[in-house]
């Protein structure tokens, strides 16, 4: 009886080693240099979303790895502020952690704008390879000088277009649509070049802007369209998959510098585990999200390859312009990484 219990415990211990490689059992976590820490972790989507689930997963991992000493509290629906407001709070050391869009980091490290280049990645496999490889890591590391310790990329995913005016089947259908875009120059110029009346706005204001008619449409991945209930105010969904949006999990450098090495280790390991969980969850859920959006009454259409090619041609000058601005070396490096991922 006791023997069985002991071997079960051993098996559980081994399992922890297998998945995290950090501590064998709780007692080892206690022996490590870990103190009591309260960590406020902010995000923009609702609690019932991929961000909410991955934050809960991250909190659980941190709890496990720290023997219950480090406590992560998630704050969803932008209750701690928009992405940019949270970044400022992290830099100032008044908030510990957050996850937000690369698109909102361009004011800090402008090169993050490359991830707003349309049609950059063909699939998630390419995105994972580039983001987790030397290119993605290099951009994350640039944040450290600016007061942000970037840990991992999560996935928002391939963005699609919704609006209340009409189904978008060809470029011309975009003409004059008042479209909310993320707050960065690339997104703004891209959607201007496609003929929309593009309006930059924080995500935290988007639902009400759609509801009150301040804007006609927006673009986001299907999981986000569902979890943010945009189907309540947007009749048309067009599957453009025009750009892949990453999220970045970050910590305040001011706060990070006060952690012990063991505490940093806990956060790093938990962040990597949360990345794998979040991507799996997002990918597994996107078909169900499509079904839910259909059921909710959205009219969904795809765009022909020929029309997507026309969109590509329209946005190319914008990509060329910003490639120059970031330095052509950087874009070359990015393209080489993508080529490598394509094999
Ligand atoms: C949520 C945002 C959002 C992003 C946007 O935190 O702003 O449209 O796609 O999902 O990061």
Automatic annotation (TrEMBL):
CDD domains linked: PBP2_TRAP_YiaO_like (cd13679)
Secretion signal, residue range per the UniProt entry: 1-31
UniProt xrefs under PANTHER family: DICARBOXYLATE-BINDING PERIPLASMIC PROTEIN (PTHR33376:SF2), PTHR33376
Organism per entry: Azospirillum oleiclasticum
Record-given protein name: TRAP transporter substrate-binding protein
UniProtKB keywords: Signal
Keyword Membrane: no
């Amino acid at each position: 009886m006791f023997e069985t219990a002991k071997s079960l415990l051993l098996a559980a211990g081994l399992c922890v080693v297998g998945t995290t490689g950090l501590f064998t059992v709780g007692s080892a976590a206690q022996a490590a240099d870990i103190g009591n820490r309260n960590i406020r972790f902010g995000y923009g989507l609702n609690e019932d979303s991929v961000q909410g689930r991955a934050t809960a997963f991250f909190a659980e991992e941190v709890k496990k790895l720290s023997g219950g000493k480090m406590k992560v509290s998630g704050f969803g629906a932008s209750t701690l502020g928009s992405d940019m407001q949270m970044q400022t709070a992290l830099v100032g050391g008044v908030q510990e952690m957050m996850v937000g869009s690369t698109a909102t980091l361009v004011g800090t490290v402008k090169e993050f704008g490359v991830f707003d280049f349309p049609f950059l990645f063909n699939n998630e496999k390419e995105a994972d390879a580039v983001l987790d490889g030397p290119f993605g890591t290099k951009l994350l590391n640039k944040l450290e000088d600016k007061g942000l310790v970037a840990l991992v990329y999560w996935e928002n995913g391939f963005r699609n277009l919704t609006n209340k005016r009409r189904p978008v089947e060809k470029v011309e259908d975009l003409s004059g649509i008042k479209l909310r875009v993320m707050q960065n120059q690339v997104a703004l110029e891209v959607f201007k070049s496609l003929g929309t009346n593009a309006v930059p706005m924080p995500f935290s204001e988007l639902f009400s802007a759609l509801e009150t008619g301040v804007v006609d449409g927006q673009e986001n991945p299907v999981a986000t369209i569902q979890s943010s209930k945009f189907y309540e105010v947007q009749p048309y969904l067009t599957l453009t998959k025009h750009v892949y949006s990453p999220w970045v999990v970050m910590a305040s450098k001011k706060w990070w510098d006060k952690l012990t090495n063991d505490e940093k280790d806990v956060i790093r390991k938990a962040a990597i585990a949360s990345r794998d969980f979040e991507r799996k969850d997002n990918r597994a859920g996107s078909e169900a999200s499509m079904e839910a959006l259909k059921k909710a009454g959205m009219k969904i259409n795809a765009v022909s390859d020929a029309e997507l090619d026309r969109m590509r041609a329209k946005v190319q000058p914008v990509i060329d312009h910003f490639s120059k601005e970031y330095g052509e070396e950087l874009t070359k490096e990015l393209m080489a990484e993508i080529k490598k991922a394509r094999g």
